[in-house]
Structure formats: C-alpha cells, structure tokens
Write a structure and sequence with these properties.
The chain is mainly alpha-helical and about 675 residues long. It contains 30 helices and six strands. The two termini are about 50 Å apart.
Length: about 675
C-alpha cells in the first residue's frame, strides 16, 4: 500500500521505501490530483495550472508526466494494463489513493471532538495529540503559493487550528493549564482572528495564577479584532473578561467537573440501570433523557442533544403511548431557520413515529389538541422544505390548534413550521417576512415573567434572511442587532454564528471582494463544533463561489474545496456535468442562478427557458441572500442575461434596468450594521 503525505513536503512511501516522484512538474501534477482526489481533474485545468502560458505540446508533456507517475507509483503493474491508482476518466485524470495523511488527520480530529463532547478529555487529548503529530511542516509546502492549492492549504490550516484548540480544551479539563498556555501562545500568534484560541489562552493563564496576563491576552484579542476586522470580541470573550474581573468561582474548576443543568441530568442517568426492565424504570430513564435533551439544547450542545433525543424518542415509541410520545418529541423545542436537516435518518423516524402517534390519538376518541399540535409541528419541522403537500398541511393544522389553545409558544413553533414550508417557488421572501413579523409580535406580547426570548430571536433571524433577500439591508441590520442583543441578554448560544454570516453576506454585496472573503472565512470559523452539519457542509465554498460569480469569475480556482451537497452546481458551472433539479429551499435561487449561467455558457436553450421561468418571480430579490449567509447579486441581472441569450433584447434591457435599481438600493446602504458579536 502507498502512503501519500501532504502535511509537509509532498512524499509517497511504499511498504518498502520512498517513491521517487520525478521533477517539479511531475510532483505538481500529483499534488493537484491529490487535492481533488478522488474526483476527476479535467486535462485543460491541469494544463492551465502547470503553466502560466501553456507551450505548444503542453498536452503531450502532461501525458508524459502522468505516464512517469504511473510507473513510479505502480512499478509492478503489467504493461498495457490500466492503472487502478492514477486513472484516465473523461474529461481528465483522477487519483484513487487509499492512504493520505491529511485524511487520517481529519478523521483523528473528528474523533477527538467526539470524545471531548461525551466527557472523555483524556482519550480526546491523546487522539488529538496523535492527529497533530502527523504534521511535518506546512501543508503542500512546495505548492502553497499556487492558486490551485491555496483553498486546500487554508482548509487544512483551519482544521489544524481547530485540533490545537480542542487539544487545549481537553488539557484544561485535565488540569494541565501551564502546558496549554505554551501551545496557545503560539496558536494565537499564527491565527490571531480565532477567538476560541484567545478564550482558552486567557482561561489557561487564569488557572495558572496569572490573572493580569489573562486580562492582557483578552485586551490583545480585542485590539487585533478591531484593527484587522473592525469588530468587537464575541460574547464568550466578553463574558470571560467579566468572570476574570469578578474572580468567578467556576473558572477555577476543570471543565469536566463543573456542575450545570446537563451535568445534573447526566448524573441522574448514570445512577440508573442503562437497560431498565420494568415500565417504571424505563419511564424514569426517559424523564432523565428528556431533561438532558432540554439542558443541552439550551446550552447549544446540539450534537449531543440530538444523540440523546434519538434515544429518548425511540424509547418513547416503544411504549406505544401516543400521548407520551408527543410529550417526549416536544421536549426538543429548538427553533429552526435552516432548510437542510442535520440528521436525515432521525428526521425520517420522527415523522413516521409522529404520524403513527396521530393515528393513535385519534383512536383514543378524545381531542388532545396540545399533543396533536406538537406532533404536527414535529412533522412540519422535520419535513422542512417538503416537496409534497404534507409539510404545509401539518404546519397549518398545528397553527389552527395553537390559536384555539391560545398558547403563544406553541403558535410560534407552528409558525416556524410554516416558515420551513414556504419554499415552493422562488420569490417568497415577502411571505416569509410576514411570518417573521408574526413571531416577533408573539414574543413582544408576553409579560416579562413569561418572556419568550428564543421565539423573538427566531422571528428576528427570519427577518434578517427575508430583508436581505429583498435588498433592504437597513431592516436586516436592525433585526440582526436585535437578535444579537437578545442572545447576549439571555445567554442564547449559536445566534452569533448566523449574524456573523449575515455580516459576511452584507460585505459581499456592499464592499470589496477581499473584505468579503475575510468575513466569510471568519464566519466559517464559527461553524465547527456547533452541531449544525446541515448548515456547515459546503457552505463556505458556495459563498466564495457566489462572490466570485458576482465579480465576473467562474470559481474554477475553488475546484478542490469541499462543496458537499452543492458540488453538482459547481460542476455544472465549470462544464463538468449538468446539474440535477434544485431542492426548493433557502438556496433554491442560488442554485438556479448557477444552473442558468451553465445553460448560457453551453447554449442550452431548454435549460435557459426553464431557469428563466423559475427565477422570474424573484426578479426584485438578491439571489442567495434569503439564506442569510451568502449572495450572488440581483436576480434581475441573471434574468437579463438569460433573456439576451435567447434573443429577447427588449426584455433583457428591462431586467437590466431592474438590476441597476437593486444595485443602487444596495449602494445606498453601504455603511453597514454596528458590529455586535453574539
């Protein structure tokens, strides 16, 4: 087996000895294919990446390099037999390695995070130590300045920083403060914009008896963020500074020993038989699981909350008690503003179980409107952006029941379900804004002792998305600030993730590309560890692609980034393959714009007509901005290009006039929101 090493200078080792790879261009071809592996890299891309100005005979030279690499990598392969490692596949070549140190490193980081999340800091520390030990120098060291390598190098550097921070967190949990400080001093010098590094450094310094140095580190963090990004530190850093000044008792305790709501429920679960036999024991464990799920959801530990929720709802389903199931499924009252599920398997189970429970309640012969409403809300939330009618039917029925019960919290959740079903076509931002305003009004109508801050935050975030789509950035700014202020006042986690992405979107629409790239990178750094894979997967590459498209590019330099579920639309834009039908969700307009551009470039008249009809209802909107996370510019401009490509010049000019009006509206709002990290 061959081991490919890229966490440092490029090296390949067989079971016996190092492999001689040849000259610089041989090595560049291998590195280029490794970055893309196992995907195909088109021949033309390889030629463009190898030479600034490709010479005559570039194709022949490339074929020579590939042939030499095949001989070096598979010296015992019989003549005239196809390579199984470096394969020819239209429209280019692909590498199919089994062992790459960068892949093993990423696996190790994920496992370390998992161990840390389940309260095993010693095992997590060891795992992360081994993962970081794979690094021998800068990733793809000899190619780091090449445009085709830059995205992957940046991704690996970010992952390395995350591993250093998680190892430090494990070290603090084990009481190793002094050693952690040494690592983190170097880390914040390398990555001064990562706030978690500063937080852990200050905490390590404080636990080492260096209170003054801890406060000085937080001041340095504030200065760096203000100077380089023009923003204030996020709430975790501000809270830590307050706690250090107050000499808060909890700072002295290793992380794993702190007792919180989730800690009490964990203790209750540990005290029980993990496999109770009797109904009483099973119900007691179920009650403890529900308590833990609520506590974890409140603190933002969504990955663990979902894990325990899955156990709880499966256990509740085993009771065959529809009222109990409705009670359990309603314990996870986490508002949702993203249209991709984080756990499709669990969502499918929840929907099927909720449907059975509704049938069971009907068989009881009593109304039970509250339980029915919770089950219907579950169906609407878990079938988010449903392509069929059931999701919206469930949301509307739940809304009717909640209004009849005069239950504001239940009504807000039902409206949340209806919001997630408002994606049947493009151009529905105004309808979603109306839902957002209703949710904000519900929260505002409650007395102080019955405040619903999470409901208010949900409404404001929906309005951030909706007004961004409508190019009303001033209104979106107001709602982003309101969401941040509520999150800070009530200790609601994760809100700053979404508002950071909105600020990046805003920068993309109103500022230079370089500033937007930095803002997107800063926002993306907040996603790992949030337990929101449905949001995180592929979103940064898609955002950078949208930015490049707005500035007239094709995004080709992003080819080696992990686009996740958005890869088919990138491939369509770059001519690799046609795209599938886009899901009807928050990013429907963004994907459809990419499809439209691909159709224009390929001259596909049928696809042009189809995408034109799909985008037309959103002519007044900004493509992608309804996500609250990225933008591709006014939809009207793309409609104009589609019309022009179909020979409809008068219609095209009307669309371009609308595009100019939307751009003028955006230019009038360039000042931007006050920075307020939440």
């Amino acid at each position: 087996m061959l081991n490919f090493a890229v966490l440092g200078p490029l090296e390949v080792e067989s079971d016996v000895q190092p492999v001689k790879l040849g000259g610089p261009r041989h090595r560049a071809v291998l590195a280029r294919l490794l970055i893309a592996a196992p995907r195909v890299v088109p021949v033309q891309w390889l030629i463009d990446d190898l030479w600034d100005e490709p010479p005559e005979g570039a194709l022949g030279s490339l074929q020579t390099f590939v042939g030499a690499l095949r001989k070096a990598l598979e010296p015992r392969r019989p003549a005239r037999t196809a390579s199984r490692l470096l394969v020819t596949q239209a429209p280019g070549y692909a590498l199919r390695p089994e062992e790459v140190d960068a892949w093993r490193f990423a696996d190790g980081v994920r496992e370390g995070e998992r161990l840390l999340s389940v309260g095993q800091p010693l095992a997590a520390h060891d795992q992360l130590e081994r993962a970081l030990g794979r690094w021998r120098g800068p990733a793809y060291a000899e190619f780091a300045d090449q445009s085709w390598a830059r995205g992957e190098v940046q991704r690996l550097d970010e992952l390395r920083s995350l591993a250093v921070e998680r190892r430090a967190e494990a070290g603090l949990a084990l009481g190793r403060s002094a050693a952690v400080v040494l690592d983190l001093e170097a880390q914040v010098d390398r990555q001064p914009l990562r706030e978690d590094g500063w937080r852990l450094l200050a905490l390590g310094l404080y636990r080492s008896g260096r209170q003054g140095d801890a406060l000085a580190a937080l001041r340095r963090a504030r200065e760096v963020l203000a100077e380089q990004l023009g923003i204030d530190p996020g709430e975790p850093l501000r809270q830590l500074e307050r706690d250090i000044l107050d000499q808060a008792a909890h700072l002295e305790k290793p992380l794993e020993k702190q007792v919180s709501g989730d800690g009490l429920w964990r203790a209750a679960i540990r005290a029980q038989d993990p496999n109770p036999v009797g109904a009483i024991g099973r119900r007691q464990r179920l009650e403890a699981l529900m308590g833990l799920v609520r506590a974890l959801a409140v603190t933002g530990e969504l990955t663990q909350a979902r894990q325990y929720r899955a156990e709880a709802v499966r256990a509740a389903a085993d009771f065959a008690d529809p009222l109990l199931f409705a009670q359990v499924v309603g314990a996870f009252e986490v508002p949702a503003i993203w249209t991709a599920n984080d756990d499709e398997e669990l969502s499918t189970f929840l929907v099927e179980s909720a449907e059975r429970a509704l049938v069971g309640i009907e068989a009881l012969g009593e109304e039970h409107p509250s339980e029915r409403a919770r089950l219907l809300i579950t169906i609407a939330l878990e079938r988010r952006a449903d392509s069929g009618p059931r999701g919206m039917e469930a949301a509307r029925e739940a809304e009717q029941l909640a209004r009849g019960l005069n239950d504001p919290h239940l009504l807000a959740l039902a409206l949340n379900g209806r919001f997630l079903q408002t994606f049947g076509r493009a151009g529905l931002a105004r309808e979603r804004a109306l839902i957002g305003h209703q949710i904000v009004e519900i929260a505002a109508g409650q007395p102080a002792e019955q405040a619903l801050p999470t409901v208010a935050v949900l409404g404001h975030l929906i309005l951030v998305q909706s007004y961004a789509a409508l190019a009303d950035l001033s209104a979106a700014d107001r709602h982003a600030r309101a969401a941040d202020e509520l999150a800070e006042a009530h200790g609601i986690p994760l809100i700053g993730v979404f508002t950071a992405w909105y600020r990046a979107l805003r920068a993309a629409l109103t500022g230079p590309a370089e500033a937007a790239q930095a803002a997107y990178a800063q926002a993306a750094a907040k996603l790992p560890g949030t337990g929101m894979p449905g949001v995180e997967n592929g979103i940064l590459p898609l955002a950078l692609l949208g930015l490049d498209v707005m500035h007239g590019g094709t995004g080709k330099h992003l080819a080696d980034m992990d686009f996740g579920p958005y890869r088919p639309w990138f491939d369509a834009l770059t001519g690799v393959s046609p795209p599938p039908a886009s899901p009807r969700d928050l990013l429907f307009e963004a994907r459809t714009v990419l499809h439209a551009l691909a159709a224009i470039r390929s001259g596909d008249q049928s696809a042009m007509r189809k995408t034109y009809a799909q985008l037309l209802p959103a002519e007044d909107e900004v493509a992608g901005a309804g996500s609250g996370m990225l933008a591709l510019g006014p939809v009207a401009g793309y409609l104009g290009r589609l019309a022009r490509a179909q020979g409809e010049n008068d219609r095209a000019e009307r669309h371009f006039a609308k595009e100019r009006a939307v751009l003028a509206q955006l230019r009038q709002q360039t000042e931007g929101p006050a920075t307020h990290e939440g």
